[in-house]
Design goal:
Layout (H helix, E strand, L loop, with lengths): L3 E5 L5 H13 L2 E4 L8 H9 L2 E9 L2 E2 L1 H9 L1 H6 L6 E8 L6 H14 L3 E2 L26 E4 L11 H22 L1
Parallel strand pairs: 1-2, 1-3, 3-5, 5-6, 5-7
Antiparallel strand pairs: 3-4
The chain binds flavin mononucleotide (FMN).
Flavin mononucleotide binds next to helix 1, strand 3 and strand 5.
Keywords: Flavoprotein, FMN
Cofactor: FMN
InterPro entries: Flavodoxin/NO_synth, Flavodoxin_CS, Flavoprotein-like_sf, FMN_Rdtase-like_dom
């Protein structure tokens, strides 16, 4: 069975809930980036051993949180040695607005994966965008590069839309499934 790690930052808990759903779908281990933007030695070892790595961060001011960016820059040590080349990668972001410039964060993650020589996995769900669509539908935000989630600015962590959380589980399963096909 392939090994998948979901590595994420969450300032206020919403992205953490999404990460848990992605990890549940993938059968993945979870690694949280600290409020200081750091992870431990065991976490680095888990990432090195993973077949698939899924990045997660909230979108703050139009890109990933600075803690995720600090982690990204720290992965340059892996880049130097090509340690993560040919791993499978995916990414997700969560923010308050339907768009909210989430796409910038996903492209940031896709670029990071590509710098490492990774194999990026798209969301793999058609958008649900007809008149009767609701937030309970899969991919109601219409993403394609990776997973998009919306947490309205006044929503508690318990109020993330059911369609987004179902999409999160689907995406985790998809990324882990691709890794399994390539590695098992
Ligand atoms: C500093 C900051 C900047 C933010 N910038 C954006 C943004 O650019 N677009 C957006 O849609 N939401 C933005 N938000 C809202 C957050 O993305 C949203 O509250 C998200 O659920 C936070 O996730 P977290 O609880 O995991 O930290 C911002 C929030 C903060 C605190």
């Amino acid at each position: 069975m392939s090994k998948t790690v979901v590595i994420y930052h969450s300032g206020y808990g919403h992205t953490k809930v999404v990460a848990e759903h992605v990890a549940a779908g993938a059968g993945a281990a979870l690694v949280a980036i600290s409020p200081e933007g750091d992870i431990g030695d065991d976490d680095w070892a888990a990432l090195d051993a993973a077949d698939a790595i899924i990045f997660g961060a909230p979108t703050y001011m139009g890109s990933a949180s600075w803690q995720f960016k600090k982690f990204s820059d720290a992965t340059s040590k892996k880049w130097f040695t090509r340690e993560w080349a040919d791993k499978v990668f995916g990414g997700f972001t969560n923010s308050a607005s339907p768009s909210g410039d989430k796409q910038v964060t996903l492209i940031q993650m896709q670029t990071l994966a590509s710098q490492h020589g990774g194999i990026w996995v798209s969301l793999g769900l058609a958008p649900t965008n007809h008149k009767a669509a609701t937030t309970a539908d899969l991919n109601n935000l219409g993403g394609s590069v990776g997973l998009l989630v919306r947490s309205p600015s006044d929503a508690s962590v318990e109020e993330i839309h059911s369609g987004d959380l179902a999409s999160a589980r689907h995406y985790g399963e998809r990324v882990a499934g691709v890794a399994a096909r390539l590695n098992d």
